[in-house]
Each structure stands twice: as C-alpha cells, then as structure tokens.
Amino acid sequence: MLEIRNLQVSISTTEILKGINLNVQKGEVHAVMGPNGSGKSTLANVLAGRPEYEVTHGAALFEGQDLLGMTPDERARRGIFLAFQYPVELPGVRNRQFLKAALDSVREHRGEDELSVRDFNKIFDEAVQSLEIDPELIKRSVNEGFSGGEKKRSEMLQLSLLNPKLALLDETDSGLDIDALKTISKGINRHRNKHNAILLITHYQRILNYITPNQVHVLIDGSIAMSGGEELAKELEAKGYDWVKEDIRS
Amino acid sequence: MVERRVISRTTTNLESDYKYGFYTDIDADMAPKGLNENIVKFISKKKNEPEWMLEWRLKAYRHWVKQGDQEPRWANVDFPHIDYQDIHYYAAPKSKGDAPKSLEEVDPDLVEAFNKLGIPLEEQKKMTGVAVDAVFDSVSVATTYQKKLEDAGIIFCSMSEAVLKHPSLMRKYLGSVVPYSDNFFATLNSAVFSDGSFVYIPPNTRCPIELMTYFRINAEDTGQFERTLIVADEGSYVSYLEGCTAPMRKSSQLHAAVVELVALDNAEIKYSTLQNWYPGDKEGKGGVYNFVTKRAKALGINSKISWTQVETGSAITWKYPSVILQGDNSTGEFYSVALVNNRQQADTGTKMTHIGKNTKSTVVAKGISAGHGNNTYRGAISILPSADNATNFTQCDSLLIGDQCGAHTVPYIEVRNSTARMEHEASTSKVSDDQLFYAMQRGISEEEAHYMIINGFCRGIFKELPFEFAMEAGQLMRVSLEGAVG
Ligand SMILES: Nc1ncnc2c1ncn2[C@@H]1O[C@H](COP(=O)(O)OP(=O)(O)O)[C@@H](O)[C@H]1O
Ligand SMILES: [Mg+2]
C-alpha cells in the first residue's frame, strides 16, 4: 500500500530525513518509534503533503502511485489521514460542519453518495459516544479550547468517520491518562482491518500493550536504525534509545 | 413567532465578476443634473408634498450650501472631489405617474429586474413571509403584505406615502434622531431625499413578519438618497432587513442615505443589513460611494436596539450605525462584518452614547481585508455623567488575506462616570498555513478551506442575522472574495 524509497527531506536547507525505506502492506500496523527530534513528525507530515517540507531525494508510492506530486487534499481524498501531534484550532468552524464537508469530499472521490444530514448526524453521534467524547464539547468549534487529550480524541473521531486506507497517527498516545489511552487504543483497534494500514508513531512503548504491531521501526536522527517485531518495542522500553545508538556504532 | 420566507437568489451563471451587474432598460424620469433650490422644489412637487416638508428640505438645503461643497475628510478613505452639480438628484421609473398602488401596476420590467435580483415580488403575493418595500433608483415601487400588516395596525410604507398619510408621526420623528444639520451627507440627504421606508409598530405589538427593503441604484450618474424611519412604540418588536445592490458602472455613484430608529419604553428594533453595492472593478474604477448616517435612539426604559451589518460592497463605505442609550436600562448592540477586496475602502464602526442608568452596549466588529483593500474600524463609546452603572463590551477582530491589504482600529473611549465598566478586546490574524493544511488534510480543497475559515471568523455575526440572510451573507463573502483566495 505504501512504499517509501530512500526518502530524503529538508526543511529550510537542514536535512531531516536521511534516506528512509519503508514498505507497509494493507492490513498491517507499523510502529515508528524514536526519541524527540528524530524526524517522526516530519515523516508523517511529508507523507500527508505539508508544503514547508522539501523532498530532496527518493520517492513515496501509495497504491502504486506517486504520492509526492499530489496536493494534500488529493492525498486525503485518496485515503491518507494524518492524526496531528498538535491539532490546530479553527475558530467558528463547527465540528459537525467541518467533518460533514470532509466526509462529503472523501465520499465523492470514492464515488459514494453524499450523506444526508440525518444519516451523517447518526454516524457522528455514534462515533462521539464510542470514543467517550463529551457531546457538549464537540458542539464547539474544531479543537477550540480543547485540552490536549480532547484534541486527540477529536482526531480519532475524524479518523473513525473518514475511515482512511492509511492512517498516520502522530503521537496520538502522548499526554493521555491510562483511561483515555485505553479508549483511544480501542478506537484504533476497531479501525484496524485487512483493508487498512496504520503507521503508529510513538515515543513510548506503552500504547503497544494495547495495539500489537506487525513491525516496529526505530527512527534515530532521520534514519531507520533498526526494525523488528513487537518484541523490539519491549527491548527498547527496557534499554532506552541510547542502546540503539550504541548498537549502530558498534 | 416570526414567519420567514426563503429568499431565493440567483447564484449561478456569473457572466461577469459582479453577479448583480445587469442593467435594466427603463427610461428614468430624471431631474436635470445639479442641485439648487429649484431642484429641491421639483422633488417635493413630484411627490405632492405638503408645505412643511418642503420647508424642512429647503432649510436643509440652505444649511448644506453654507458648508461650501466640502465633504468631511477625517475618515481613512481616499476619493476624488465629488462634483455635486454633476449628479441627477431625482430619477423615477417611467411608469410612475403616481406611484404604483399594487403589484399589478408595477412595470413588468421592474418586476423582472427584481426577479433577477432574487426578489420574486410576483411570488410574494401568494406567500406569507417577508414584506418587501423595493426602492428602485429613487421611488418605492411596491410594498407587499400590506393587508396583513394593516390588520395588526402596523404601518410599513414608502416615505413619500408616509409624508402624505401620516404627517403627525412624520413631523414628530423625522429628524428627531439625525437632525438635518447633523453632517454634510445627512444634510444633503435631508434636502433631496427621494424615498425609502417608514415603519411604525403600535404599542404592545410584535410585528408578525420580517420587514424588508431592497435598494437598487439603476440610472447612471444618479445619486441615491433614501431615508428610513422606524418607530417602535411601547412594548413592541420589529425585525427589519435591508438589502442593497447596484449594477456595474464605469463612473462612481453617490449614495447618501439616512436611517433613524426610535424605540420607546420596552420596545426592541433589530435592524439587519446586507450591503452589496457595486464595489468597482479590480483597479478601483467605478463603484458606489456609500456615505450613510444610521442612528438609533433607545429612548424608552428597557428599550433595545440591535444593528447587524454585513458590508461587502461599495468602493467606499463610510458608515457608523450608532445608538443613543437614553432610556434607563436600555441596550445597544452592533454586530458587523466589513469585507474589502481589490481597491475597496471601508471606514466603519459605531458610536454608543450612554445617557441612561444601567445602560449596556455590545460591539463586535469583524474586518476582513483582501487584495489591496483598506479596512478601518472606528468606534466611539461615551459614558456621560448621568449613566450610572453603564457597561460596554467591545471586540474588534481583523483578518488579513494576502499582504497588500490594510486593517486599522481606531477606538475612542470617553468615560465620565466612575461606575462604568468597560471591556475591550482586539485581535488581528491571518488565515494560517497550519489551518489550511489541517483542513486540506481532511480532503477539503484549498479554496473551500479558505471560505470555511473566513466564515468561521464571521460566525458570531452571521448568527445574529435572520436565517436566510445568514445563508446569503455566506454566499456574498464568496462572491466578494473571488480571486483573493485559493
Ligand atoms: N518547521 C521546522 N523548522 C525547522 N526545523 C524543524 C521544523 N520541523 C521540524 N524541525 C526539526 O526537524 C527535526 C525533526 O523534527 P520532528 O520531525 O518534529 O521530530 P519528532 O517528531 O521525531 O520529535 C528536529 O530537529 C526539529 O527541530
Ligand atoms: Mg513529533
């Protein structure tokens, strides 16, 4: 589904990603772990098409097609979803209205009919409930005045309604208490099926207690330093990222 | 319950940039260009006005002449000197020997013109809903729903008719809020005002429908000087809507209107405007000079005035809908969106003058600047010594699109009573790349993302509008911002 070949990315002339190779098949969950500043968000954002990043080398294919030439909205309509590490506020833009507009354009691209307001409200309310989001809160504008945890839940709400083929989850687990972590993990597991793929970006091993990845990659200083199965995450938790760094050096 | 009618407007097949830019081919019955006492008399005669009305006009005219052709220049707008002798001060549609009394008498071309504007006068006969008084150039063409209103004792008619039929109300209230000597443009208007709407709501009456006036300037080189007067008697309520459009013209057109509102004890007036006069072309050629004086007196105790305006048109907007809070416990509100694009200039805001005790005012002004547009919020809050426990909340937000435009905030605050509570907030923002990327990452196109964020910015104002007007306002923003976003 996603094929990344020797991807090199700079921002204002500083090289951040230094040749990433990654293959994600549909149905798979890949965890990308790494210390702060290693380039995890850069990877997620460049795949979603954030304009500030400059791809200096390499390629990224999504379902066999060149991803890097597409605008962000086209990528989204084709089924790429980024759960932001720091979601922005859209003052005055209502959650329902925002998500309806997003879903309409995604559905149109898939050749599906526009949902009636009634049908939309139904699935919206169901998703709000299953993610244990305060219905009063979600009446507000997009992310406006939301706490960190509330923003993360709201990202999951959007994920569950848009049902993307490839979800890029950028530290969706950071800053959550244990109950919230469980709810969100449940949401991710519900989304997980044989058609979808997930790139689960995280700083901590903790969320992997609830979501079992097919593969784990360790990103250090803009390169994938190590890849392995779920046991790699446990080893990292025990030994820390320095262990990987030393391991590469030796 | 206030009944509502859906205002269906033409929104497709834009043949030009300005969607209301068609021209209606009706020969105007015009006064010759220029202004002198004879023209004032001509206008008055055309309208069969009584002596007192002519006298008032002449007093205004003489006062205006004394000011020597010098319009005020303190606003942050730039325009060439206006040649007041190069303007027609009266233009009536030809069919008007005496004003049409019913829809059947209206020139079919006029009806067609209104249909193009999305004001289906024809339809309105069959429907209950908004009563419309349509002012075309200078003459009020048709006032629908008279019957329903008459049954409630409500007067909703053209100014010309009111002068003839309701002289005691007119003599009592005309000029009682904006005296003829008020300012250059109001004085000019008082001398030559052509038509407009008059509303009177009797005591303890809630107007059962929304009242609406549509203004359209049509004839070339014609000034439009309409005048509106609304009086809400004790314990009454009215919601009044005003819409404005004008066709594309190479030369600029002068529009100098006056609106006066009076609310007696426990009365409430809600006045909403969608102003979409022709803004001129991309280089700033043509367009309407909109120099308008709007003022309300919250005269009675517990009275309330609420101004809501969405200003997207005009080459120049010079307009400060204000409230004199005279009655104890009275309330004044001002909600505004002013949008400028290309070479448009707007200097708009409000004045809240607190005189009564426990008076309260709220000002929320949103300015959107795009292209080379220049937008100024000018607001004055005065708390007079008599106004114990007055409160004011003011919020001014500016949104910038691109980096060629300007936004300015000029607040004046005068507090002469120490019990006053004042709160002022201001912000300037841009549609950020982060916001755009966020929306686009959800599948929304760049252009739609812009409109969504801009509409979000205006939300607090749009929600003050009657529902159909709010829809219309969103559409207007889109049309007005074409080429500026995406
Ligand atoms: N917009 C930016 N401008 C300059 N440097 C940036 C920007 N975004 C990220 N970086 C730098 O790129 C590196 C990787 O950042 P990031 O991808 O956010 O890492 P992570 O998500 O793993 O913490 C960091 O050194 C960071 O300072
Ligand atoms: Mg990060």
Secondary structure elements and pairings:
The complex is a heterodimer of chains A (250) and B (486).
Chain A: E1 2-11, E2 14-24, E3 29-33, H1 40-48, E4 54-62, E5 65-66, H2 72-78, E6 80-83, E7 90-94, H3 95-109, H4 117-130, E8 141-142, H5 148-162, E9 166-170, H6 178-191, E10 197-202, E11 215-220, E12 223-228, H7 230-239, H8 241-249
Parallel strand pairs in A: 3-10, 3-11, 6-9, 9-10
Antiparallel strand pairs in A: 1-2, 1-4, 4-5, 7-8, 11-12
Chain B: E1 28-30, H1 37-46, H2 51-66, E2 91-93, H3 108-116, H4 121-124, E3 131-136, E4 139-143, H5 146-151, E5 155-158, H6 159-165, H7 167-173, H8 184-192, E6 197-201, E7 211-216, E8 227-232, E9 237-245, E10 252-255, E11 258-263, E12 268-276, E13 287-298, E14 304-311, E15 316-319, E16 322-325, E17 331-340, E18 345-354, E19 360-369, E20 374-383, E21 391-400, E22 406-415, E23 421-430, H9 433-440, H10 446-462, H11 467-481
Parallel strand pairs in B: 3-7, 6-8, 7-9, 8-11, 9-12, 10-13, 11-13, 12-14, 13-15, 13-16, 14-17, 15-18, 16-18, 17-19, 18-20, 19-21, 20-22, 21-23
Antiparallel strand pairs in B: 1-2, 3-4, 5-6
Helix pairs in contact in B: 1-2, 2-8, 9-10
The complex binds adenosine-5'-diphosphate and magnesium ion.
Residues 11-12, 16, 34, 36-42, 52 of chain A line the site of adenosine-5'-diphosphate (ADP).
Walk me through the structure:
The complex is a heterodimer of chains A (250) and B (486). Chain A has helices at 40-48, 72-78, 95-109, 117-130, 148-162, 178-191, 230-239, 241-249; strands at residues 2-11, 14-24, 29-33, 54-62, 65-66, 80-83, 90-94, 141-142, 166-170, 197-202, 215-220, 223-228. In chain A, α5 (148-162) packs parallel to α6 (178-191). In chain A, 42% of the residues are buried. Chain A has a single domain (2-249), classed as Rossmann fold, CATH 3.40.50.300. Chain A is α/β, with parallel strands linked by helices. Helix content of chain A is 37%, strand content 28%. In chain A, the strands form 3 sheets. Chain A has a 6-stranded mixed beta sheet, with helices on both faces. Chain A has a 4-stranded antiparallel beta sheet with strand order 2-1-4-5, covered by helices on one side. In chain A, strands 7-8 form a two-stranded antiparallel ribbon. By secondary structure, chain B is α/β, with parallel strands linked by helices. Chain B has one domain (28-431). Chain B is built from 11 helices and 23 strands. Chain B has helices at residues 37-46, 51-66, 108-116, 121-124, 146-151, 159-165, 167-173, 184-192, 433-440, 446-462, 467-481, and strands at residues 28-30, 91-93, 131-136, 139-143, 155-158, 197-201, 211-216, 227-232, 237-245, 252-255, 258-263, 268-276, 287-298, 304-311, 316-319, 322-325, 331-340, 345-354, 360-369, 374-383, 391-400, 406-415, 421-430. In chain B, β3 and β4 (139-143) form a beta hairpin. Chain B is globular and about 65 Å long. The relative contact order of chain B is 0.10. Chains A and B meet through α2, β7 and α3 of A and α9 and α10 of B. The complex binds adenosine-5'-diphosphate (ADP) and magnesium ion. The site of adenosine-5'-diphosphate has 12 residues of chain A, from α1. Adenosine-5'-diphosphate binds next to α1 of chain A.
